[in-house]
Amino acid sequence: MKGNEQTGLTHFRVYTLVIYRIGVRLLLVFHRRFAEASGMVQVTVLTLFDNKRKDKSMETNSAPLFHRNPQAPPVNRNREQALLIGLMSGEQEFFYTNSLTTGRSREELSRHLSLAVRLKDKPNIQLVFNFLKEEGERSAYNIMISLFLSEHNEKKREALIKERFLGIDRFVQYCRNLSDFLVYIKENNTIEITNEDLQRGILAWDLGHLVSLARVSYDYGLLAEEEAWKYIEFAGKKCRETFACWKEIGKSFLLGQIMSYPGEENFQEAIRYFLLSTESPESPWVKCKFG
């Protein structure tokens, strides 16, 4: 990761709450080009930070891919599939693939949350879960993507987004990151991202992290077992309603990752985990039929 001591795997996203005030009708202004907005609502926005590891390269080399918990109790098919919504997120943190528990030490779990101490109490972490369920990074992406697809000239597209979303740099940066990624995969002939993939959005990015955060919170003692499963099963149900296969889920997570972490090195890393998850014979996604 650019900015990290190591550039191996994507780190688990640690969530810091940033509260903004935004007009409840502002989103309508974005779409309908109205000039006025009224009414205010509180919108919770998550800023995602990387956790630095002391020696990520050694851990990367020693950690097996798709590591299974040999003592995992059996779970029903719905729970098994719901857990796997977080495969790409959890795999980048060496989590077990087949159990609620992550297999990480207390020290590791604490480090996942150490950049956002407020999340180590239940009321605040509840806000994060609610945000990931209801809004997530996908709310900004969904507003931006229609404009992105309507203008193919990169400079004109960026100017349009700047004009339409004056003062909201997030949309401009998302647009730029996505454009850079699409150029990168075309030039390097790595994977194909279609307009349909772009329109499906980054729901799996939000819900993949919902699953991983529920597991970490359970292991850390912030959630009871059934509470954690409630969030994980929500992610599974929502993804079954939205996606037709694991590959669609993988692309959705991938797009969210490259939007937050641009640059060639990060693109390569994100693509690597997408391909491992969707093509490796050892991947649970390959072994477990979706749906």
UniProtKB/TrEMBL annotation:
<protein>
    <recommendedName>
        <fullName>DUF1266 domain-containing protein</fullName>
    </recommendedName>
</protein>
<dbReference type="Pfam" id="PF06889">
    <property type="entry name" value="DUF1266"/>
</dbReference>
<dbReference type="InterPro" id="IPR009677">
    <property type="entry name" value="DUF1266"/>
</dbReference>
<feature type="domain" description="DUF1266">
    <location>
        <begin position="132"/>
        <end position="290"/>
    </location>
</feature>
